[in-house]
Amino acid sequence: CVFPGNVAHPLSIPGQTALARGSQIEGPPLPEGAAKSSIDSMSFSAEAYFASQPPPPTLQHDVEQVREFVARQAKEGRNVVLVTSGGTTVPLELNVVRFLDNFSAGTRGATSAEYFLKAGYAVIFMHRQFSLQPFSRHYSHSTNPFLDFLEIDPPSPSSPDADPRISVTPNKRHDLLNVLTEYKRVHALGTLHTLTFVTVDDYLWLLRALSQELAVVGRRAMFYLAAAVSDFFLPRQKMSEHKIQSGKGNLSIEMDQVPKILKPLVDNWTKGGYVISFKLETDDNLLLPKARQALERYGHQVVIGNDLHRRKFEVVFVSKKYLPGPPPNPEPAADGSDEFSEYWLRINVAHTNQTPGFPLKEIEEDIVAELVKRHAEWIARTP
Ligand code: PAZ
Questions:
Q1: Cα separation of 319 and 304, whole Å?
Q2: Ligand 1 binding pocket includes 276 (Cβ within 6 Å)
Q3: Would you say the CB of residue 306 lies under 6 angstroms from ligand 1?
Q4: 272 torsion bin: left (phi>0), alpha (psi -120 to 50), beta (else)
Q5: Ligand 1 pocket: which of 128, 223, 306 to mutate (most atoms <8 Å of CB)?
Q6: Which one of 169, 234, 252, 382 is most buried, by most CB atoms within 10 A?
Q7: Long-range pairs for 130-136 at CB < 8 Å and ≥24 separation?
């Protein structure tokens, strides 16, 4: 988590039981066992979480739209990928002025979504409101503002009073034409559906609901969970109703652990979907152990590990070597020492820093190509 600039106090976040200074609000009581789970005695179980935290008001509407989208894609025989992208927030107050945020610009998700669309997938793009989106990401207001390459044409001498015309600077036309052509193609096909989240609550409710909707396409569904999701949150029952007041010295906040929802997603919510989660670390020594641990715990197909500073040119795919299904399947070592496979994917770092919005090479192109191949193999071999 990182703190937004307007947090007035240093916050200490040792782990549990939020008690932001200020009035604690009355709300539905936490269910019995809310602070227990089989994974970590300090965290909510998924059931306790959903029983005690209210859904976002737009959930029903969002789900109906996704249901329609998925039904159409299923009829047209497409694979469907749910891409999650951007960081979740954790509000500190009910009338929210301050919040904790998770690091992510949404580049990974938005870029990958474009390559999935190119590969013929239908894409549900579930992203943090105002983070990068497919296609428009090339013209981010901070790195490649579109106003900079528009020109006002001089009035024509033959009709000086005509409405002024605007055109694109010649050296930007080629890139824009490519983006616009693909954007129009995708819109005409109707293969991209976008929806937004802001808080970690929005994210969890949406992910559960959408994974249940995607069960309709079974093994043809892919989950590409690239969003940066907070590990800690403040249950509503423990939040301050109003803005936390300054002037009383330091502020200490204890937060509860967010439930580990990959496990129920894999086991119960979606039937047969191919699930990829991302693991971001800043300590190299943790990347592989944490990725393996996630696979062990949740039983999904792939963890893509990335280091914060090298994520644009290096990632590692971690998966179990022995898949369910028919041979060929090599004999596992008796001591389990060869249980995991690691596949490092790297691109030339120099290629990631070219024209703003248009690097020579994007690592997401190779990530998506590898996953599309693995997904097809997995569909073919899963009974
Ligand atoms: O959005 P972005 O391109 O700036 O960053 C992508 C990322 C590092 C958030 C993503 O690749 C990732 O690792 N997501 C999972 C983060 C986590 O471990 O919770």
A1: 9
A2: no
A3: yes
A4: left
A5: 306
A6: 234
A7: 131/85, 131/86, 131/87, 131/104, 131/105, 131/106, 132/85, 132/86, 132/105, 132/106, 132/107, 133/106, 133/194, 134/110, 134/186, 134/192, 135/179, 135/182, 135/183, 135/186
Question: 278 CB less than 6 Å from ligand 1?
Answer: yes
Along the 383 residues of the chain, how does pLDDT read in single tens digits? 333 333 333 343 333 333 444 444 444 555 554 544 333 434 689 999 999 999 999 999 999 999 999 999 999 999 999 999 999 999 999 999 999 999 999 999 999 999 999 999 999 999 999 999 999 999 988 889 999 999 999 988 888 888 889 999 999 999 999 999 999 999 999 999 999 999 999 999 999 999 999 999 999 999 999 999 999 999 999 999 999 998 878 999 999 999 999 999 999 999 789 999 999 999 999 999 999 999 999 999 999 999 999 999 999 999 998 665 555 566 666 666 668 999 999 999 988 876 788 898 999 999 999 999 999 999 998 76
Amino acid (1-letter code) at residue 335 = D
Any atom of ligand 1 within 6 Å of the Cβ of 106: yes
H/E stretch holding 201: helix 200-214
Q: Is 134 in the pocket of ligand 1 (CB under 6 A)?
A: no
Q: Do residues 265 and 222 make contact, with C-beta atoms less than 8 angstroms apart?
A: no
Above 0.95 for ipTM, yes or no? yes
Q: Work out the number of other CB atoms within 10 angstroms of the CB of residue 215.
A: 15
Distance, CA 211 to ligand 1 centroid (Å)? 20
Place of tokens 């239908």: 122
